[in-house]
Protein backbone atom coordinates (compact mmCIF):
# COMPACT_ATOMS: atom_id res chain seq x y z
CA UNK A 1 0.00 0.00 0.00
CA UNK A 2 1.24 3.48 -0.84
CA UNK A 3 2.34 5.81 1.97
CA UNK A 4 -0.31 8.02 3.54
CA UNK A 5 -0.77 10.95 1.17
CA UNK A 6 -3.09 13.94 1.49
CA UNK A 7 -5.20 15.31 -1.34
CA UNK A 8 -6.35 18.80 -0.42
CA UNK A 9 -9.58 20.31 -1.74
CA UNK A 10 -9.44 20.64 -5.50
CA UNK A 11 -6.02 18.99 -5.63
CA UNK A 12 -5.60 15.91 -7.78
CA UNK A 13 -3.54 13.06 -6.38
CA UNK A 14 -2.22 10.67 -9.02
CA UNK A 15 -0.54 7.31 -8.89
CA UNK A 16 2.54 7.87 -11.14
CA UNK A 17 3.15 4.17 -11.74
CA UNK A 18 0.09 3.78 -13.95
CA UNK A 19 0.10 4.74 -17.66
CA UNK A 20 -2.59 7.05 -18.94
CA UNK A 21 -5.07 5.09 -21.06
CA UNK A 22 -8.78 5.20 -21.77
CA UNK A 23 -10.22 6.59 -18.55
CA UNK A 24 -13.55 6.04 -16.85
CA UNK A 25 -14.42 9.07 -14.71
CA UNK A 26 -16.59 8.63 -11.62
CA UNK A 27 -18.27 11.59 -9.93
CA UNK A 28 -19.37 10.47 -6.47
CA UNK A 29 -21.52 12.84 -4.37
CA UNK A 30 -21.43 12.53 -0.57
CA UNK A 31 -24.58 11.99 1.51
CA UNK A 32 -27.33 14.21 0.05
CA UNK A 33 -29.17 15.58 3.08
CA UNK A 34 -32.74 16.80 2.84
CA UNK A 35 -34.14 19.53 0.65
CA UNK A 36 -31.03 21.77 0.88
CA UNK A 37 -28.89 18.88 -0.38
CA UNK A 38 -31.25 18.08 -3.23
CA UNK A 39 -31.46 21.76 -4.17
CA UNK A 40 -27.72 22.24 -4.49
CA UNK A 41 -27.39 19.01 -6.50
CA UNK A 42 -30.10 20.24 -8.83
CA UNK A 43 -28.37 23.60 -9.14
CA UNK A 44 -24.75 22.50 -9.52
CA UNK A 45 -24.71 19.01 -11.02
CA UNK A 46 -25.44 20.06 -14.63
CA UNK A 47 -22.54 22.51 -14.42
CA UNK A 48 -20.26 19.90 -12.82
CA UNK A 49 -21.12 17.35 -15.51
CA UNK A 50 -20.26 19.84 -18.25
CA UNK A 51 -17.01 20.68 -16.48
CA UNK A 52 -15.87 17.21 -15.38
CA UNK A 53 -17.42 15.06 -18.14
CA UNK A 54 -18.01 12.07 -15.84
CA UNK A 55 -18.76 8.63 -17.24
CA UNK A 56 -21.14 7.96 -14.35
CA UNK A 57 -22.58 9.98 -11.46
CA UNK A 58 -23.23 8.22 -8.14
CA UNK A 59 -24.83 9.85 -5.09
CA UNK A 60 -25.44 8.54 -1.61
CA UNK A 61 -29.11 9.41 -1.10
CA UNK A 62 -30.11 7.67 2.14
CA UNK A 63 -30.84 11.08 3.71
CA UNK A 64 -32.39 12.72 0.66
CA UNK A 65 -35.90 13.13 2.09
CA UNK A 66 -36.22 14.94 5.45
CA UNK A 67 -32.88 13.40 6.45
CA UNK A 68 -34.18 9.82 6.52
CA UNK A 69 -34.66 7.73 3.39
CA UNK A 70 -35.57 8.71 -0.16
CA UNK A 71 -39.07 9.13 -1.58
CA UNK A 72 -40.04 8.64 -5.19
CA UNK A 73 -40.26 12.39 -5.75
CA UNK A 74 -36.72 12.87 -4.40
CA UNK A 75 -35.49 10.08 -6.64
CA UNK A 76 -37.09 11.72 -9.66
CA UNK A 77 -35.69 15.12 -8.72
CA UNK A 78 -32.12 13.82 -8.38
CA UNK A 79 -32.42 11.70 -11.53
CA UNK A 80 -33.54 14.76 -13.49
CA UNK A 81 -30.53 16.63 -12.10
CA UNK A 82 -28.20 13.99 -13.56
CA UNK A 83 -27.59 11.30 -10.92
CA UNK A 84 -27.24 7.83 -12.48
CA UNK A 85 -26.84 5.52 -9.47
CA UNK A 86 -28.06 5.89 -5.88
CA UNK A 87 -26.35 4.28 -2.90
CA UNK A 88 -27.62 4.15 0.66
CA UNK A 89 -26.91 3.23 4.25
CA UNK A 90 -28.58 2.76 7.62
CA UNK A 91 -31.46 5.13 6.70
CA UNK A 92 -32.17 3.62 3.28
CA UNK A 93 -35.33 1.84 4.42
CA UNK A 94 -36.67 4.98 6.11
CA UNK A 95 -39.34 5.52 3.46
CA UNK A 96 -41.64 2.61 2.52
CA UNK A 97 -41.63 3.29 -1.23
CA UNK A 98 -37.89 2.56 -1.41
CA UNK A 99 -38.59 -1.16 -1.78
CA UNK A 100 -40.71 -0.50 -4.87
CA UNK A 101 -38.07 1.88 -6.21
CA UNK A 102 -35.38 -0.79 -5.83
CA UNK A 103 -37.53 -3.29 -7.69
CA UNK A 104 -38.30 -0.85 -10.49
CA UNK A 105 -34.83 0.70 -10.77
CA UNK A 106 -31.75 -1.54 -10.33
CA UNK A 107 -29.70 1.67 -9.98
CA UNK A 108 -31.28 2.31 -6.56
CA UNK A 109 -29.09 0.39 -4.12
CA UNK A 110 -29.08 -0.38 -0.44
CA UNK A 111 -26.25 -1.98 1.52
CA UNK A 112 -26.39 -5.63 0.52
CA UNK A 113 -25.48 -6.87 3.98
CA UNK A 114 -28.52 -5.41 5.79
CA UNK A 115 -30.75 -8.40 5.01
CA UNK A 116 -30.48 -11.68 3.07
CA UNK A 117 -33.60 -10.55 1.17
CA UNK A 118 -31.79 -7.47 -0.13
CA UNK A 119 -28.37 -8.91 -0.99
CA UNK A 120 -28.89 -8.58 -4.73
CA UNK A 121 -29.76 -4.91 -4.30
CA UNK A 122 -26.29 -4.24 -2.94
CA UNK A 123 -24.71 -3.85 -6.36
CA UNK A 124 -25.42 -2.88 -9.95
CA UNK A 125 -23.49 -3.12 -13.20
CA UNK A 126 -23.80 0.10 -15.19
CA UNK A 127 -23.14 -0.10 -18.91
CA UNK A 128 -21.13 2.73 -20.50
CA UNK A 129 -19.52 3.28 -23.92
CA UNK A 130 -16.17 2.60 -22.23
CA UNK A 131 -17.31 -0.67 -20.70
CA UNK A 132 -19.27 -1.77 -17.62
CA UNK A 133 -18.86 -0.30 -14.14
CA UNK A 134 -19.84 -2.23 -11.02
CA UNK A 135 -21.02 -0.16 -8.05
CA UNK A 136 -21.30 -1.99 -4.71
CA UNK A 137 -22.99 -0.70 -1.55
CA UNK A 138 -22.08 -2.20 1.84
CA UNK A 139 -22.46 -1.05 5.45
CA UNK A 140 -20.15 -1.30 8.44
CA UNK A 141 -21.04 -3.15 11.64
CA UNK A 142 -19.77 -0.70 14.28
CA UNK A 143 -22.73 1.26 15.75
CA UNK A 144 -25.08 -0.34 13.22
CA UNK A 145 -27.81 -2.78 14.21
CA UNK A 146 -28.55 -6.10 12.54
CA UNK A 147 -25.87 -5.90 9.87
CA UNK A 148 -24.09 -8.95 8.48
CA UNK A 149 -20.31 -8.98 8.32
CA UNK A 150 -19.36 -6.49 5.56
CA UNK A 151 -16.05 -8.20 4.79
CA UNK A 152 -17.70 -11.56 4.14
CA UNK A 153 -20.32 -9.81 2.02
CA UNK A 154 -17.62 -8.20 -0.12
CA UNK A 155 -15.93 -11.57 -0.65
CA UNK A 156 -19.30 -12.97 -1.69
CA UNK A 157 -19.84 -10.12 -4.16
CA UNK A 158 -16.36 -10.36 -5.64
CA UNK A 159 -16.88 -14.09 -6.07
CA UNK A 160 -19.96 -13.47 -8.23
CA UNK A 161 -18.99 -14.29 -11.85
CA UNK A 162 -20.98 -11.32 -13.14
CA UNK A 163 -19.02 -8.91 -10.95
CA UNK A 164 -15.76 -10.75 -11.51
CA UNK A 165 -15.99 -10.07 -15.23
CA UNK A 166 -16.10 -6.29 -14.67
CA UNK A 167 -12.77 -4.48 -14.43
CA UNK A 168 -14.01 -1.18 -12.97
CA UNK A 169 -15.47 -1.76 -9.50
CA UNK A 170 -16.37 0.93 -6.97
CA UNK A 171 -17.55 0.48 -3.36
CA UNK A 172 -19.56 2.88 -1.21
CA UNK A 173 -18.66 1.69 2.30
CA UNK A 174 -21.21 3.30 4.61
CA UNK A 175 -19.61 3.02 8.03
CA UNK A 176 -19.06 4.88 11.30
CA UNK A 177 -15.58 3.74 12.30
CA UNK A 178 -12.53 5.00 10.43
CA UNK A 179 -10.67 1.81 11.41
CA UNK A 180 -13.36 -0.35 9.83
CA UNK A 181 -13.02 1.62 6.60
CA UNK A 182 -9.23 1.25 6.69
CA UNK A 183 -9.62 -2.51 7.12
CA UNK A 184 -11.94 -2.61 4.11
CA UNK A 185 -9.27 -0.85 2.06
CA UNK A 186 -6.71 -3.46 3.15
CA UNK A 187 -9.07 -6.25 2.15
CA UNK A 188 -9.87 -4.77 -1.26
CA UNK A 189 -6.59 -3.03 -2.14
CA UNK A 190 -5.67 -3.82 -5.72
CA UNK A 191 -8.84 -5.85 -6.22
CA UNK A 192 -11.21 -2.97 -6.91
CA UNK A 193 -10.95 0.54 -8.31
CA UNK A 194 -12.14 2.61 -5.35
CA UNK A 195 -13.30 2.38 -1.73
CA UNK A 196 -15.26 5.53 -0.88
CA UNK A 197 -16.46 6.06 2.68
CA UNK A 198 -19.78 7.66 3.59
CA UNK A 199 -22.01 8.09 6.68
CA UNK A 200 -20.21 10.48 9.05
CA UNK A 201 -21.05 13.56 6.92
CA UNK A 202 -17.58 14.96 7.68
CA UNK A 203 -15.07 15.01 4.78
CA UNK A 204 -11.65 13.59 5.57
CA UNK A 205 -8.24 14.71 4.33
CA UNK A 206 -6.84 11.28 3.45
CA UNK A 207 -7.82 10.86 -0.21
CA UNK A 208 -5.18 8.84 -2.04
CA UNK A 209 -4.49 6.20 -4.65
CA UNK A 210 -2.57 3.20 -3.38
CA UNK A 211 0.37 1.67 -5.21
CA UNK A 212 -1.96 -1.19 -6.19
CA UNK A 213 -4.31 1.28 -7.90
CA UNK A 214 -7.22 1.58 -5.47
CA UNK A 215 -8.55 5.08 -4.78
CA UNK A 216 -9.62 5.67 -1.18
CA UNK A 217 -11.10 8.27 1.12
CA UNK A 218 -12.39 7.62 4.64
CA UNK A 219 -15.40 9.90 4.11
CA UNK A 220 -16.52 11.95 1.13
CA UNK A 221 -18.59 14.24 3.35
CA UNK A 222 -22.13 15.61 3.12
CA UNK A 223 -24.08 17.53 0.53
CA UNK A 224 -26.21 19.72 2.74
CA UNK A 225 -26.12 22.73 5.07
CA UNK A 226 -22.51 23.11 6.16
CA UNK A 227 -23.31 25.20 9.26
CA UNK A 228 -25.59 22.43 10.54
CA UNK A 229 -24.83 19.53 12.85
CA UNK A 230 -24.34 16.75 10.28
CA UNK A 231 -27.30 18.15 8.33
CA UNK A 232 -29.61 18.74 11.28
CA UNK A 233 -30.84 21.94 12.92
CA UNK A 234 -28.18 22.98 15.47
CA UNK A 235 -30.70 24.33 18.01
CA UNK A 236 -32.58 21.03 18.18
CA UNK A 237 -29.38 19.02 18.41
CA UNK A 238 -28.01 21.26 21.18
CA UNK A 239 -31.19 20.74 23.22
CA UNK A 240 -30.89 16.98 22.77
CA UNK A 241 -27.30 16.91 24.02
CA UNK A 242 -27.87 19.41 26.84
CA UNK A 243 -31.03 17.82 28.25
CA UNK A 244 -30.77 14.17 27.24
CA UNK A 245 -34.31 14.46 25.83
CA UNK A 246 -34.55 13.03 22.32
CA UNK A 247 -36.32 15.93 20.62
CA UNK A 248 -37.35 15.10 17.07
CA UNK A 249 -34.51 16.04 14.70
CA UNK A 250 -35.13 18.64 12.02
CA UNK A 251 -33.24 19.24 8.77
CA UNK A 252 -31.22 22.45 8.94
CA UNK A 253 -32.05 25.36 6.68
CA UNK A 254 -29.54 27.62 4.98
CA UNK A 255 -26.86 27.61 2.31
CA UNK A 256 -25.65 24.17 1.32
CA UNK A 257 -22.32 22.76 0.13
CA UNK A 258 -21.92 19.98 -2.40
CA UNK A 259 -19.15 17.56 -1.39
CA UNK A 260 -17.89 14.99 -3.86
CA UNK A 261 -14.90 13.19 -5.29
CA UNK A 262 -13.87 12.62 -8.88
CA UNK A 263 -12.04 9.36 -9.53
CA UNK A 264 -10.28 8.58 -12.82
CA UNK A 265 -9.95 4.87 -13.55
CA UNK A 266 -8.01 3.05 -16.25
CA UNK A 267 -10.76 1.22 -18.16
CA UNK A 268 -8.41 -1.53 -19.36
CA UNK A 269 -7.10 -2.50 -15.91
CA UNK A 270 -9.62 -1.16 -13.39
CA UNK A 271 -6.83 0.67 -11.56
CA UNK A 272 -7.47 4.22 -10.43
CA UNK A 273 -5.10 6.90 -11.64
CA UNK A 274 -6.32 9.84 -9.53
CA UNK A 275 -8.82 11.04 -6.96
CA UNK A 276 -9.85 14.69 -6.62
CA UNK A 277 -11.88 16.30 -3.84
CA UNK A 278 -14.63 18.74 -4.80
CA UNK A 279 -16.50 21.15 -2.52
CA UNK A 280 -18.82 23.67 -4.13
CA UNK A 281 -21.05 26.21 -2.41
CA UNK A 282 -22.51 27.84 -5.51
What does this structure look like?
By secondary structure, the chain is an alpha/beta fold. The protein has a single domain, classed as Purple Acid Phosphatase, chain A, domain 2. Helices cover 25% and strands 26% of the residues. The chain contains 7 helices and 14 strands. Helix 1 (34-52) packs parallel to helix 2. The chain is globular and about 55 Å long. It starts with 11 loop residues before the first strand and ends with a strand.
Structural class: alpha/beta
Overall strand count: 14
CATH homologous superfamily? Metallo-dependent phosphatases
Residue fraction in strands: 25-35%
The CATH architecture designation is 4-Layer Sandwich
CATH-defined fold name: Purple Acid Phosphatase, chain A, domain 2
**Could you give the distance between the termini?**
36 Å
Question: Which percent range fits the helix content?
Answer: 10-25%
Give the biggest sheet: 8 strands, mixed
Unreliable segments of 5+ consecutive residues: 1-8
The number of distinct helices, counting runs of at least 4 residues, comes to 7
Kindly give the count of domains: 1
Mean pLDDT: 92
- Spell the H/E element sequence: EEEHEHEHEEHHEHEEEEHEE
- What is the CATH domain class? Alpha Beta
Note the overall shape: globular
What Rg, in angstroms, do the CA atoms define? 18 Å
Amino acid sequence: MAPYTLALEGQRFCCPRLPQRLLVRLLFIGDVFGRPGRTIVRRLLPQLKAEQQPTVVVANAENATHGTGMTRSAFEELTAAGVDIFTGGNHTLGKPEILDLMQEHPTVLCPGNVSPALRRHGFVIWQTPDGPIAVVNVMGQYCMNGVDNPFRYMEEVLGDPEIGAVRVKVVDFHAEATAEKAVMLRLLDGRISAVLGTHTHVPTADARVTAAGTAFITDVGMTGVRSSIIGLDPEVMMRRFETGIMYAPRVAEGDATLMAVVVDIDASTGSSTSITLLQRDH
